[in-house]
Every structure is written in C-alpha cells, then in structure tokens.
Amino acid sequence: MERLQKVIAHAGMSSRRKAEEWIQEGRVKVNGTVVKELGIKVGPNDKVEVNGVPLEKEKPVYFLFYKPRGVISAVSDDKNRKVVTDYFYEIEERIYPVGRLDYDTSGLLLMTNDGDFANVLMHPKHEVDKVYVAKVKGIPLRESLKKLEKGIVLEDGKTAPAKVKFLSSDKKKQTSIIEITIHEGRNRQVRRMFDAIGHPVQKLKRERYGFLTLQGLTTGDARELTPHEVKQLRALATTDGKSNRLK
C-alpha cells in the first residue's frame, strides 16, 4: 500500500505536490469515490482516476547504479546540486533511489519506480547486508574494531553487530583501509561509527548490496537488474532475517 499522491506521481502524471493539489481539489477518485484526504493509501487492485482518466501504472524498472561522490541521493535538490536521477535522463519512468548514500559517499545504489520493492528492501526488519570500504584517519587498534563488531552506542541508539575486516594501513600517512558490513540503514551510520572510535572516515564506498556488486561498472554507470536478480532480492529481504544477518 502506498500513499495516493505518490502513486499518481509514480505513474508519471504529475509531481507529488501537484498530485496533492488535485486530491484536495476533489479531482481524484478511488474505486469510483472522490477522495480529498492526503493520507489515504491505495493498493495494486484499487482503481484510481485523475480528472476522469484512469491511472495507467508504469512498467516497473530496476537499476543498479554506481553513484559518484558529490551527488545527492534524491530526485531533486533545492540547491541545484547534481542528483542521482540526472544520470537517467533517457529513462521515461519516474525512478528514485532505494535508500540513500551520503553526498560524499560513492558506490552501489539501487534505483526503481516500484514502491513495494523499495519498501521491502528498506524495512528495518528485513535490511540486507551492505559492504562498505572506508579509508579512515589513523590506524585503529583491534580493540577499537571489536567495538564496531559488537555494536556501538550512537546518539540514536546502539548499532547492530557488524563484521569488520582490517585491509591495509599506511603508517607514513597514518591512514587505514577497513571493510565493514552492516545491515542497518541509519543516516551517515558508517561515518558516525568510525567517529565514535576516534577514526574519522576520509573516503567511503559501498561495494556490495546483498549479492550485488559493482563488477563491470565505473563511477556514474548503471545497468538494469535482471528479473532473476529482482526475484533474488525480494527473497533475500523477505526471509525471517536469519540468513541475511551477520553470523
């Protein structure tokens, strides 16, 4: 189930804000009844009409995108900064990112117009493992990395256990490369976790999302997911979590 204005926007008829205006003006019907409430939700079997015209739903599309640094994980930006949808100008469907990567973080980001698919992947109960590689300041002690593995207390609560692997260090520059796997999706979580142990992130990249990798792509590239990959992602996210979560 999704909010009515979101469904209208995703069908390509208008922006979400314009859709809200149409609803409030009584120009939208759901199953033959005029609705004026913005909070109403509709499902795939509901019949929606806008200005007397039945809503035609877009064909669902799914993309794997190698997001560059310095790009906003959004469909628009009030400061006119580059956003992820700028890389999909040839795509007619109104796609949007599944979750987000920070402005200064690069790596694997999923894009779709399928709200149910996005909601399943982002649901806190079904979060899929995500692998990041971080270049951090300093050379963390094993005890510090163990804190990340066990879960560390941040301002919005304790993080779930993480898997951490020390990859390399540069003693001259006093930097380290650390791989960390988490299944949560809090705002700037990886950066805040390393801040909490005194080793700020200098560079961050998401290299894997579930079983998906960036293989064959360079920054700014995208490819369409195969039907089998979409099916696998749904299955991965809708299990009881035991097979998804860190051992």
Summarize the topology.
Blueprint: E1 2-3, H1 4-10, H2 16-24, E2 28-30, E3 33-34, E4 41-42, E5 48-50, E6 53-54, E7 62-67, E8 96-97, E9 105-112, H3 115-122, E10 130-137, H4 142-150, E11 153-154, E12 157-158, E13 163-170, E14 175-182, H5 189-196, E15 201-209, E16 212-213, E17 222-224, H6 227-237
Parallel strand pairs: 9-15
Antiparallel strand pairs: 1-4, 2-3, 2-5, 5-6, 7-9, 7-17, 8-9, 10-14, 10-15, 11-12, 13-14, 15-16
Helix pairs in contact: 1-2
Short description:
The protein is α+β, with helices and mostly antiparallel strands and about 250 residues long. It has helices spanning about 5-10, 15-25, 115-120, 140-150, 190-195, 225-235; strands at about 1-5, 30, 35, 40, 50, 55, 60-65, 95, 105-110, 130-135, 155, 155-160, 165-170, 175-180, 200-210, 210-215, 220-225. Pfam families: PseudoU_synth_2, S4.
Order of H and E elements: EHHEEEEEEEEHEHEEEEHEEEH
Q: How far is the first residue's CA from the last residue's CA?
A: 33 Å
Please provide the count of β strands. 17
Mean pLDDT score: 91
- The structure class reads alpha+beta
Helix content: 10-25%
CATH class of the largest domain: Alpha Beta
Rg from C-alpha positions? Answer: 21 Å
Q: Beta-strand level of the residues, as a percent range?
A: 25-35%
Q: What summary fits the major beta sheet?
A: 9 strands, mixed
Oligomer: single chain
Report the uncertain regions. Answer: 240-247
CATH superfamily of the largest domain: Pseudouridine synthase I, catalytic domain, N-terminal subdomain
EC number: 5.4.99.-
GO biological process, one term: enzyme-directed rRNA pseudouridine synthesis
Enzyme class: isomerase
GO molecular function: RNA binding; rRNA pseudouridine synthase activity
